[in-house]
Amino acid sequence: MSVHPSHPIQPNIVRRLHRGAVAWILDWWRLLNFSVLMLTVGVMPATYRKDNRRILAHHLVRDTVPNLVWFGVLSALVSLVLIRIVVVTSQSYGLTRYALDLVVRVLTLELIPLTAAAFVALRTTLPTGLEFSQSRKAGAAATLDELRSAFFPRVATGIFAVWMLAAVSCVLTLVLAYLTLYGFTPYALPGYTRVVGQVFNPAVAMILALKIIFFSLAVGLIPMASSFYYGASYRAKVTHGLSDMVRLFAVILLIEVASLMGNYY
């Protein structure tokens, strides 16, 4: 009767958990370090010299205007459909007076900021971070000029694009909601602005602004942080594939949950 030697399963699991925990802590520590570095570069006057201003303006226009057009059209179509659904459903249950409040809360407070951040991440920052990391030499340290002319414009573009898409789409949705509910008449404007003002009280407005700011920081910083540490020694290769996408959308989800708790609890 043969006896098979026992395998050290438990120590292997512990080692894997330890390596995973160390890698996770290093990822978030390096993201924090990169964020502080970008903030430092952003407040330096030399970052906004003539040559750097031209590069920054080029990135802002190239990566914001096409996204603004496409996202504006898509958000307008989706908003019209959702507004119509809410209005018809409210009328069928005799709750027409709550339709505007529901439309404003669902679209402008929740859906539009979330979809704007996801749109910019999938269309701009994640692909740009991947392309930029592949063009750099693995393990090469970034110089100060490269931080000013290459990293900072891409980070600033991601942040600015989320702000612009969310702001324009929220205004567009509010206009479409008014036209759908009241038509082309100016006489319902005082009642409409009163309801919208009641929804956007100071606390809700502050939470919305903070949510958009944190969304934009996550979208702008996380993909470029991996490019900055591309080929670092603690890992053979830092990729922008599934790991960066999961990390980014996990942060977005946490921000959204925190905003929901602030608005409704």
UniProtKB/TrEMBL annotation:
The chain crosses the membrane at residues 28-48, 68-90, 102-122, 155-179, 199-224, 245-264. It holds the Pfam family MlaE. Keywords: Membrane, Transmembrane, Transmembrane helix. The keyword Membrane applies. GO terms for cellular component: ATP-binding cassette (ABC) transporter complex. The keyword Transmembrane helix applies. This is Phospholipid ABC transporter permease protein MlaE. It comes from Duganella phyllosphaerae. The lineage of its organism: Bacteria, Pseudomonadati, Pseudomonadota, Betaproteobacteria, Burkholderiales.
